[in-house]
């Protein structure tokens, strides 16, 4: 074993043997279902449908650009909001693909993956005592991120067989402490795409009650193929 690996193992062992309590909020959370199912899939050599693993390595042009950037020494601290050229491209993409004009200077932010962006929104927008409406079933990371901000989760159960939104129950779930509605379409884990009627109802509630809609659209580029 390399010296670096031995040192790392010692550091991990030291942390594990520490008598000081861990963060109570995170230590009380269960192991993510993705870790559980991936472990079982590996143990039994089964097909893992628990996570969205892409079946391609990504666009060739993007890989070439990333490789060139490494050799061109683009590895220093950029603006904390993201590289201006990338933010400008994000704004152009938003207007071209979603019809939403975006001011790249004041309305764009680049994060290291969507999960960090969502965590920043939860931590930056929510206060202890606020309530977040989430559609159940839900992506489990939403719960831990929202709870870390001190907010309470208000679940609204989607109805089988088509995972439709119970609009009356959703309206009843909105109260004086409601700060945010977490919207994920296409929905994870069901794959449901919210209908125009459902989206308009959610938008109307947000406007009427001054509620933030946090939209996780990580799968949006593939919607048209469905």
UniProtKB/TrEMBL annotation:
Keywords assigned by UniProt, alphabetized: Aminotransferase, Pyridoxal phosphate, Transferase
Needed co-factor(s): pyridoxal 5'-phosphate
Keyword Transferase: yes
SUPFAM superfamilies linked to this entry: PLP-dependent transferases (SSF53383)
Domain Aminotransferase class I/classII large positions: 47-218
Record-linked Pfam families: Aminotran_1_2 (PF00155)
Gene Ontology CC: one annotated term: cytoplasm
MF annotations from Gene Ontology: kynurenine-oxoglutarate transaminase activity; pyridoxal phosphate binding
The protein's name: Aminotransferase class I/classII large domain-containing protein
Source species of the chain: Volvox reticuliferus
């Amino acid at each position: 074993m390399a010296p670096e690996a031995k040192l790392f193992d010692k550091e991990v062992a030291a942390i594990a043997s520490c008598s000081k309590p861990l963060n109570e909020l995170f230590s009380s959370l269960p192991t993510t279902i993705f870790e559980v199912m991936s472990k079982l899939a590996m143990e039994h050599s089964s097909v893992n449908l628990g996570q969205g693993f892409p079946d391609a390595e990504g666009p060739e042009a993007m890989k070439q650009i990333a490789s060139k950037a490494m050799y061109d020494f683009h590895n220093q601290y950029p603006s904390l909001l993201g590289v201006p050229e990338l933010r400008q491209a994000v704004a152009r993409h938003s207007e071209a693909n979603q019809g939403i004009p975006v001011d790249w200077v004041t309305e764009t932010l680049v994060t290291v993956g969507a999960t960090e962006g969502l965590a920043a929104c939860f931590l930056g927008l929510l206060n202890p005592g606020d309530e977040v409406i989430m559609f159940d079933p839900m992506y489990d990371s939403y719960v831990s991120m929202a709870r870390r901000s001190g907010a309470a989760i208000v679940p609204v159960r989607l109805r089988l067989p088509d995972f439709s939104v119970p609009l009356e129950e959703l309206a009843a779930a909105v109260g004086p402490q409601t700060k945010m509605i977490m919207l994920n379409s296409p929905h994870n884990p069901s794959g449901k795409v919210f209908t125009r009627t459902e989206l308009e109802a959610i938008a109307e509630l947000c406007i009427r009650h001054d509620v933030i809609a946090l939209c996780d659209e990580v799968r949006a580029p593939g919607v048209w193929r469905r």
